Automatic annotation (TrEMBL), chain A:
It comes from Flavobacterium hydrocarbonoxydans. Keywords: Cell membrane, Membrane, Transmembrane, Transmembrane helix. This is Cytochrome oxidase subunit III. One of its GO terms (biological process) is aerobic electron transport chain. GO terms for molecular function: cytochrome-c oxidase activity. The chain crosses the membrane at residues 31-51, 80-100, 112-132, 262-286, 307-325. Residues 1-326 form the Heme-copper oxidase subunit III family profile domain. Belongs to the cytochrome c oxidase subunit 3 family.
TrEMBL record, chain B:
It is a multi-pass membrane protein. Keywords: Cell membrane, Membrane, Transmembrane, Transmembrane helix. The chain crosses the membrane at residues 12-32, 39-65, 77-98. It comes from the Bacteria. This is Cytochrome C oxidase subunit IV. Its main location: membrane. It comes from Flavobacterium hydrocarbonoxydans. It is found in: Cell membrane. One of its GO terms (cellular component) is plasma membrane. Pfam families: COX4_pro (PF03626).
Length: 326, 116
């Protein structure tokens, strides 16, 4: 027990342990310094995101156009709402956590257990929501093409509304060879499956629809993506090299390759923190039920996991701002 | 423990209300993006982003001070946790964002189109 909770009756043994210069127990202090180091890790990621974004400041994707999905509202353009909901869920689970800590101070076992349980549920909902967000991000919505120079071209109609590849690409008579295992390259050398349409099919579909235009990654002074004229569009599409659908670590239909990489890495790392937080909360929850802390007459362990859980919420506040708002 | 073990449920709910209101304001501003804020610049950053960053710091302060109960710790613990983070993060941001901006200039003005 002395290893986890120090009691303040060891004043005479200055060098014998139990001395608390910061008036916090060893475990709590170490949790704080773990949080410091973890905060610096996340700051490193977010600063690296800022670095890459400053590098490509004129071509960076607009978050409003990327994260537009809401459950059960298919095809409705709902930027921000879903991620706002996720933020509320996480803040609320932080509240139930701090209520559990508060009940722990008063040694109310049942209350601690109930609030811990609610916190765990909140955490699970958040992780689930993030999985759904990833699913939409990976699947993509409209599709795009990448030029041989590495820039991304998206398709819009006359009014500037996005058009999906499936709406105009034609099916050309089969140009892909059916490869045998001995001749196939894509499934042995690269895990990337071929896109639904070939570049030629997209180009042919584009030529057949005179209303279509191309939108480049370049941002205008009004922070909108540049739309090319029909002639420029045709010329630009001539340099297309890949059809891009959805997102992976190599390329994505939203724009800068680094955007998807940072999205996967930062939200993934945060999601991993939430997940491990849920696991730790479950362990502590069972300890509460078993009466471990009741016997100890101290619920400080709940306070320590509480610190970690709030930290996860804190990180999300910053990720939310940097990824979705700014 | 130096702090009193009194229940402060009222304060917890107050902070929850505050964080919810701030988040709602952020989301509304993020959806509307008022032009007067988005295209007015102050020290290289538009006013909208200034608001977002300030509100973020505001929320972070309340999470750390109220939820993580930093306000109940000794000032030596407070400073030894907060000061290194603030100093290192500002330094990191300064270095990386300056460099990022420099590389943007290199891409823009030179013949290199895209190499990393």
């Amino acid at each position: 027990m002395e290893a986890t909770v120090t009691t303040a009756n060891n004043e005479e043994k200055t060098w014998g342990g139990g001395n608390e210069p910061l008036r916090a127990s060893y475990g709590k202090m170490m949790m704080w310094f773990f949080i410091v180091s973890d905060a610096l890790t996340f700051s490193g990621f977010l600063a690296a995101y800022g670095f890459s974004r400053f590098k490509f400041i004129e071509t960076w994707p607009l978050a409003d156009e990327v994260f537009t999905h809401f459950p059960f509202m298919h095809g409705v353009d709902a930027p921000m709402y879903y991620v706002a909901l996720m933020t509320f869920i996480l803040i609320f689970s932080s509240v139930t956590m701090v209520l559990a800590v508060d009940a722990g101070h008063q040694l109310k076992k049942t209350k601690v257990a109930i609030y811990m349980f609610l916190t765990i549920i909140g955490g699970l909902i958040f992780v689930g929501s993030q999985a759904w967000e990833w699913k939409n991000f990976i699947k993509g919505e409209f599709g795009a093409v990448e030029t041989s120079g590495g820039s991304l071209l998206q398709f819009v109609d006359k009014d500037g509304k996005r058009v999906a590849l499936a709406d105009f690409a034609v099916k050309l008579p089969e140009q892909r060879e059916a490869l045998t295992r001995s001749h196939g390259t894509w499934f042995t050398e690269s895990a990337e499956a071929p896109a639904t349409y070939s570049v030629a099919e997209v180009q042919a579909g584009f030529a057949a629809n005179p209303d279509l235009l191309i939108r480049t990654e370049q941002l205008t002074a009004k922070k909108k993506k540049t739309i090319l004229t029909r002639e420029e569009s045709i010329a630009r599409l001539g340099t297309a090299k890949y059809v891009v659908e959805g997102a992976n670590l190599t390329r994505n239909e939203y724009g800068s390759k680094l955007f998807a990489d940072f999205f996967f890495f930062i939200t993934g790392f945060h999601g991993f923190h939430v997940f491990s937080g849920v696991i730790i909360n479950i362990i502590i929850f069972f300890n509460v039920l078993l009466g471990t802390y009741e016997k100890r007459r101290s619920y400080e362990m709940v306070e320590k996991v509480g610190l970690y859980w709030h930290f996860v919420d804190l990180v999300w506040v910053f990720v939310f701002t940097v990824f979705y708002l700014v | 423990m130096s702090h009193e073990h009194v229940s402060n449920t009222k304060r917890i709910w107050f902070v929850f209300g505050l964080l919810s209101v701030v988040t709602t304001v952020e989301v509304i501003l993020g959806i509307l993006k008022p032009e007067s804020l988005e295209f007015t610049f102050f020290i290289g950053l538009n006013l909208l982003n200034w608001i977002f960053y300030i509100l973020t710091i505001f929320k972070a302060y309340y999470i750390v001070w109220a939820f993580m109960h930093m306000e109940g710790e000794t000032s030596s613990l407070r400073w030894s946790v907060v000061a290194p983070v603030i100093f290192l993060v500002l330094y990191l941001l300064f270095i990386l964002l300056t460099e990022g901006h420099y590389i943007y200039g290199v891409f823009k003005d030179s013949t290199i189109k895209w190499n990393f």
